[in-house]
Amino acid sequence: MSDDTVVVWDESLLAYDMGDHPLDPVRVELTVALARELGILDRPGVRLVKPEPADDALLTRVHDPAYLAAVRAAPRDPLFAGYGLGTSDNPIFDGMHESSALIVGATVAAAEAVWRGDARRAVNVAGGLHHAMPARASGFCVYNDPAVAIARLLDLGAERIAYVDVDVHHGDGVQQVFWDDPRVLTVSLHETPLALFPGTGFPDETGGPGAQGSAVNMPLPPGVDDTGWQRAFHAIVPSVLRAFRPQVLVSQCGADGHRLDPLADLNLTVDGQRATYLALRALADELCDGRWVATGGGGYALVEVVPRAWSHLLAVATGDPIDPATLTPSAWRELAAARRPGREVPLRMTDDADPSYTPWQPTGEPNAVDRAIAATRKTVFPLLGLDPHDPRD
């Protein structure tokens, strides 16, 4: 296996543009620009790969043919309705099929590079459209690139794939696609569905018949900060991954859990997000011989948060993490100010936060985070042969 890291990138990925909409492609543009200015993309062993659009044979591994036809037709039909398209969340836009298929192709290219041993890790920061359903657009997502990439890995011979979703929203589309498939473990940490779209992701969602324990959900109360998030992550994710023994780790790394994100209510920092990326890499190294496919996802603080968070992700995936105290390069600050005038452009790669945490223990007076941890462990751990009360599991 090569020790290289593949970064799948081309400016054509910015064509996934819904117009005046929270999912603004400028966040991806500024991420790549920041990573480039920091020298991340020029590191030894980093290979930039230009994506090709996924064809229908690949897309229909997850999506219904009638839905593909609808996505193609919608931009030409001013009266089009249905399939979740044409809503405020999922507006119809020119080139919708082509740009969506390209994002899928990019994540599939990342997955293929890792599985075939061309690279140990691969990243598509434009990907992570985890809400799309087989026959319906949802939550800003037209096609579900992580799900198609996982399906492709299964076709290539993978027998155990772990998908870990750290977006603030539940990874409902990926969970739904693999609900009945015991070869795929879906793990999602997210703000409670009682407070946030899509309204799913409760602990008792554990997989379909014959696949019980293949879905793991860790809903967290609003306001959780780095300390609570890290405590929950480490109380759940390492244990379930070790029990499952995946051959490859696929992760969706949405940055919308940040305290500045306008669409959610968690209180994370880029320092906490960086710590999560380091933990994911360590788990891939421990369990999957380093095989890690990472995507972007949500994140709507377009200048203030997303470029820094995903530049940290790219740094972790390609080698040494970036020192949080690093200054953002002046050329990038000028670009960010020009692309989004009036936004506060961060001067450093840190929020001056300490993401350290106290490991979960099943004793003492539980707070809201510990009650959520206990609920998830009690529900799903026995299905994986784990003791929900033993902190070693």
Structure notes:
With 393 residues, the chain is of the alpha/beta class. It is 34% helix and 10% strand. The chain contains eleven helices and eight strands. It has helices spanning 26-37, 56-59, 65-73, 96-115, 145-155, 172-177, 226-244, 270-287, 306-318, 330-339, 368-380, and strands spanning 5-8, 46-49, 121-124, 161-165, 184-191, 215-220, 248-252, 292-295. It has an eight-stranded parallel beta sheet, with helices on both faces. Helix 6 (172-177) links the parallel strand 4 (161-165) and strand 5 (184-191). Helix 1 packs across helix 9 (306-318), helix 1 (26-37) runs antiparallel to helix 10 (330-339) and helix 7 packs parallel to helix 8 (270-287). It is globular and about 55 Å long. The mean pLDDT is 97. Pathway: Ketone degradation; acetoin degradation. Keywords: Acetoin catabolism. Residues 346-366 are annotated as: Disordered. It comes from Micromonospora vulcania. Residues 21-315 form the Histone deacetylase domain.
Query: Compute the gyration radius: what is it?
Result: 19 Å
Fraction of residues in β-strands = 5-15%
List low-pLDDT spans.
none
What helical percentage do the residues reach? 25-40%
Task: Let me know the average pLDDT.
Answer: 97
Count of DSSP H/I helices: 11
